[in-house]
Structure formats: C-alpha cells, structure tokens
Amino acid sequence: MITPAQKLRFYRERMPLMSLYLALPWLWAALIVPWWVSVVGLILLPVAAAMIVVAVFPTPPASRRATDDIQLSDAQIEKMREASSGLHNLLERWSTLSRSTGVNLESARQQVDDVILHSEAAVLEITNSFVGVTRKTRTQMEYALSLLQQARTPGENAAHKGDDLPLPEYIRASEAMLKSLTAHLLHFSEASLELVQRQERVREQTRRIDDLLDQMTSLAGQVGRFALSTSAMVQGSRRNDFTNMADKVRGLSQAANDLSREVRQSLEGIKEEMSGAHTALNNMAREARTTAQEAIAEVEPLGKAMLAKNQQVAEILDRINTAGHEIQQDINQIIIAMQFQDIIQQKLERLKTPVFTQVLDALRSLSDETRFLHQRINPKLVDVSGVTRTGPFRVARSGAVSAVSTPEEQPTATEPKPPGESGGKVELF
Amino acid sequence: MASILIVDDSTTMRQMVSFTLSSAGHKVLEAESGDKAILLAKSNTFDLIIADVNMPGMNGIDLVRALRALPEYKFTPVLVLTTEDGADLKQKGKSAGATGWIVKPFNPEVLLSVLNKVLS
Fold first, then answer.
1. ipTM, two decimals
2. Looking at the whole model, is its pTM more than 0.90?
3. Spatial CA neighbour of A429 closest among B108, B102, B105
4. Measuring CA to CA, which residue among A152, A174, A180, A176 is closest to residue A164?
5. How many cross-chain Cβ pairs, A to B, lie less than 8 Å apart?
6. Domain ranges of chain B
C-alpha cells in the first residue's frame, strides 16, 4: 500500500505546474480583493495541489514505486554521481571502439565475402575447365578410336571395291596387284628369252647360209675353171680328160644342188623362226596391253580410295590436334584460376593479422576500462591480473600505451581483381 | 631448353610456373625464399630467374639487387612475377636491375612468350 507521502514524492515534478493552473482563477481577483486575501490564497495553492495529488491522481505502478523508493545516503548518491561520470566516459570510449571495431569487422566481412565469391568463381572456373578438358579428351579419344576403327573395318558405304576399305585391305590389294604385275613381268621375261633363243637360231641359220653361199661361190669358181679346162680340152681333143672333166662338172652340179637345197631349208627355218618370233611378239604385246589395262583399272580406284582415306586420316588428325589445342587452353585457364585462388589467399592473409589484432586490442582495452571502473565503484574488488590499469585510452597486454586508430586508419586489403583485369600485364625494362 | 629458377613463397604459384615452364621443355628449380634462391644461384647456373616481390625475409627487389651483385648473374635476365602493379615499385625493380615485370595472374602463353623474348 502506497502512503500519501510516497505518492506526493512520485508526482513532485508536476506540483509547480499544477499550482500554477490552480492560481489562474485568482489572477483577476488579485486586483480587487485586499492583498492579504491574495497572500492566503497563494499559500493555500500548494496545499490544494497536494490534496488533488493524494485524492485524485492514480496510484503509480509497482515497478516505478520500487525504483522510486530507494533510500540512499548522500555519500552514496555522491559516489553514484562520480561513477555515473566515469561510466559516461567509458561509454563514450566503448562507443568509439565499438564503431571502429565494427568498421573493421565490416571491412573484414566484405573482404571475406569477396574472397568467398571469387573463390567460388575460381572453383567454378576450374571445375568448368576440368569438365572441358575431360570432354575434349574424350572427343580426342573418340577421334583416335574412329581412326583405328577405319583402319580395321570397311565403311558402311563401301559399295565398290576400293571405295572405303580398311587400311590393311588397301595394303593387301596393293600387294596382290604388285604380285600380279611381277608375274606378268616374269612372263614377259620368259617370252623375251624365247625370242632371244629364236634370234640365236636365226643367226645360226644365217651363218649357215653364209657358209653355203661361200661354198656355192667356190663351186662357181671351180665351174669357171672347169669351163676353161674344157675349152682347152676341146681344142686338144683329149677324150679321157674331157670325160673326167664331165664327171667333175656333174659332181659340182650335184654339190650345187645340195647346197641350194640346204639354203632353201635354212631359209625355211628362218621364216619359221621369224613367224614364231612375230607371233610371240604379238602375244607379248597383247598380254602387256591387257596387263597394263588391268593394272590401270585396279590402280586408279585404289589410288583414289587411298587418297580419300589419307584425307580422312588427315582430317581426324587435324581434329585431334584441335582438341589438343583446346585442352591446352583449358589447362591455361585452370592455371590462371588457381593463381587467382592463391592471390586471394595471400591477400586474405595480409588482411587477417592486422584486423584481428586491432579488434583484439580494442576488446582488451574495453575490458581494462571496465575493470578499472568497477574498481573505482567498488574498491574492495581486486584485479585478478594484479596489474593496475589506469585510464589511458588503450592499455595493451604488454603495457604499451597507444591510441585507438580511427576507422579511416583501419587496414584494408587490396580489393582482389578478377583475372585479366590487371593480371598478366607484362612490362620489359 | 633453358635452366630457370623460380622464387616464390607460395607453393601453388611455384607449381604453376614450374608446370608451365617444364611443359615447354625447360629445366626448372624452385626456391621458397630469397636466401635460398641466392644459395641455389651460387651452386647452379641459371639462364633466367623469375622472382616474386612479397616474400618473407628478403623481398624480390632485394633479391634482384643481391643477384646483380654476383658477377655470374650481372647480365642474367631476372623477371619479377607479382601481384603488385604500382609504378613506384616497378621503378624500384627496374633500378635494382630487373629485366621485366609480370603481374599475376599470368597467362602461361604470355609467360612463355616473354621468356623466349628475354632468352633470345
């Protein structure tokens, strides 16, 4: 239950204003009533106000009553006033330190956010590049496999011989063609040998004819001489000699006849040999033409098909080469992204130490200030560290005294730049 | 094929540079600090040295200066590979005797091109 005195103390700030309101009706009467009436009326005004407070005003809430009912001595109130003054200074310093610490932490938070963002971008870049490298390597492998496949099996559009054969087939076809050509050449060689033998035989026949002709020339000489002898015999009329001469002429005639027959036979042989050689040459020429035509017919499509196959192989190799080049580009991107990651890490390292050191110093300073103030309020409290901290703005753990830097002086890490913005710049001196 | 020394306190960066140069057929040795680089430079012969600037202990500029003080490295190309892009620092590097300045992150193709240029 609240007493009237407590209620009056609670509303004491309102009493002067209430007294003024109550005096307003007396202002007009003050000019016409005696002076002592006005004095009595003014004296009664606080009494009336007090009665209104006690009788009319509502009872204050319990919490307000509790705080309002503190009974303090003057010494305590003085001490509280001193503490309040220290607290005010402390709160100001707390505010300054909190603000600078907040700026530091905000800066650190932004840097960390940036680092996270850039790290994510770098990791994404690396991942994409790895995916690209994997994909292109697979493509490269597929090209290489298709190259091997083409070397092993014929294509689907192998409609004609030599159109789209596997490489071993080309080699086999070339080998077969070469064998065929070699066989034909051997045959030509044998035919040529036969021709040489025929020519040799013709030469023999010719030599024989030459001998026969020599013999016939000799016979002609003998006949001439016999003719002269016969003439001489006719003039001498030697009968026995004439008979002998006639026998010899007969013998020579017989020999000439034999020689003529042999020459004819040799000429027949030569004619036969020439005819055989002619036939053999004709056959050889016909076979050579046929072989050449067959070879051309086989070689031309085979050559075209091999050229086409070579072109296909060249294209596949070109694709493999292009894929290899792209893979190299992706690896370069990975290298750049990994460098960027490393640069960010270094910058974060450079930021971390000063910022957190400063935050720790600020918190330590606040702790020291609080302990100091607490000791002032309650001298019985002993500092557990045993070190007296007396009021400089910052007391470091080492005992060094320093000023708290302003937010403008806070260390900030260089904003990491994305790859390509300034990275890779080259300058040769 | 050239013999190249890479000096960087970051293992990742050393590996990246080493990978790039080795792939191009160069012989590469690595050092994680300026002091170790000097020791390696004295015990080996390098055609080119690539150094970072921000390193614990001896920084890149001091390393270039120390290398130039060695008679055998008076004319050897020394490239600075760093994240720093300030004109003042570049001028310091140039005064110390650096041959060129490459800003990280580097493009492997560009690095090889610069390398071929300074080696030729």
1. 0.85
2. no
3. B102
4. A152
5. 77
6. 3-119
